[in-house]
Design a protein that fits this description.
alpha+beta, Substrate Binding Domain Of DNAk, Chain A, domain 1, Arc Repressor Mutant, subunit A, 3 domains, 5-stranded mixed beta sheet
């Protein structure tokens, strides 16, 4: 009969959604998913940036019995770092409570959580009102080869953690400005920044006056125009630098909200819909890529496209990297569908993550992969760590 050998508990407030259990001399390997692990380290993600955490860690002499009442669950490889000290429980700040794992050797860790799904990463929450998130770690010995694909599938009760609350269809259309490189090309343009904010918070298509008025609401109080919202002056760039929106659209300058709207229409970033005789503006969800219009080099394109793919990542890229490191030279062999099931992700998100990691040199796939490479969701791919 299996026995509970020892346990510890801790409670703390954290920042950046950081929770980890790390041996004192082990390397902390932060992840961006529900849970990842490496020798001597377990990295966890709280439900919100600022969360209150109540965590219990247990050491068992064999596979622990089932336990009920948890919302999010997973099981991962774990291994003691020899002479690495206790497994310290901490958040953003160092912890003071640790679990004795001396003599464990190779093992696994069961991870249970409750309370992560009441909010999202950017939520403003009062920990005193919500109460703490509850976490349970159960470490036990498991000699032999570490299998990162075993122990699943992960089960998550909601979309807490690093995912944000879903937006409206109009908010999602603004993604086209990022995925096509325009958010990068026009960084530093106050006019573009204000227009993005206005479009992100729109609940439908806007007239020119409505878009300009919404842009004004995001300005500092001293940046005002006359009675016409389109005449409101847009703050200039620091040091009188050229406005990238002006240079990209062939204009001498961008002085007002009206100038901004005209420039965005000239670039094809705003589309016009006519309804009941009125012209309404919407973000173009699929504009001409900035790199094609502005002639970027391959290195610049690669950086921007990797940023876009990362924005779509739900943390599964961290899962893949951690898995390949546990798998060693053999790598992991699985289809995108199998990985999606194992880590509670979407198949297309897994395929995007494989492309990101391959292009970025974080993993080595058994075939050349680029940003637009086709990946069959049911075909096995072998992925090895590049470290």
């Amino acid at each position: 009969m299996v026995r509970l050998l020892t346990s510890v508990e801790s409670q703390f407030d954290t920042d950046f959604a950081i929770i980890n259990a790390t041996q004192e001399s082990a390397e902390w390997s932060p992840g961006e998913s529900f849970a990842t692990s490496s020798p001597g380290c377990i990295s966890l993600q709280a439900g919100s940036k600022y969360s209150r955490i109540r965590i219990r860690a247990e050491r068992w002499d064999g596979l622990p019995p089932l336990t009920d009442g948890w919302e999010d669950i997973d099981e991962l490889p774990f291994a003691e770092v020899a002479d690495g000290g206790d497994l310290m429980l901490s958040g953003f700040d160092p912890g003071e409570v640790g679990l004795d794992v001396r003599g464990l050797g190779r093992g696994r860790v069961q991870i249970r959580a409750r309370g992560r799904n009441r909010y999202h990463y950017g939520s403003e929450i009062d920990p005193d009102r919500y109460g703490p998130e509850d976490w349970l770690l159960r470490v036990y010995p498991s000699p032999g080869r570490a299998d990162p694909m075993a122990g699943g599938p992960r089960r998550l009760a909601g979309e807490g953690g690093l995912r944000y609350a879903p937006g409206t269809p109009w908010r999602e259309a603004v993604r086209g400005l990022r995925s096509s490189g325009w958010s990068s090309a026009l960084v530093g343009s106050h006019g573009f920044y204000l227009a993005q904010l206005a479009l992100l918070h729109a609940t439908g298509p806007l007239t020119r006056q409505q878009l300009a008025a919404s842009m004004m609401r995001w300005m500092a109080p001293w940046n005002v125009g006359g009675d016409d919202a389109e005449s409101a002056e847009v703050p200039p760039r620091r040091g009188n630098e050229d406005d990238p929106l002006a240079s990209s659209s062939g204009r001498d300058s961008i002085r007002t909200t009206g100038d901004t709207i005209d420039a965005l229409r000239a670039l094809g970033l705003l589309l016009t819909e006519t309804r009941n005789g009125r012209d309404l503006l919407v973000a173009n969800p699929s504009p001409e890529p900035a790199w094609e219009r502005l002639g970027w080099d391959d290195a610049h394109i690669a950086v921007v496209r990797q940023q876009d793919l990362r924005e779509r990542d739900d943390g599964v890229a961290s899962d893949i990297v951690a898995a390949t490191r546990w798998a060693g030279s053999d790598g992991i062999r699985a289809s995108p569908r199998a990985m999606a099931i194992r880590w509670a992700s979407r198949i297309d998100t897994v395929s995007d993550a494989i492309r990101i990691l391959s292009v970025g040199g974080h993993v080595i796939a058994d075939r050349p992969l680029g940003f637009d490479s086709s990946i069959d969701p049911d075909e096995e791919v072998v992925i090895r760590s590049a470290r």
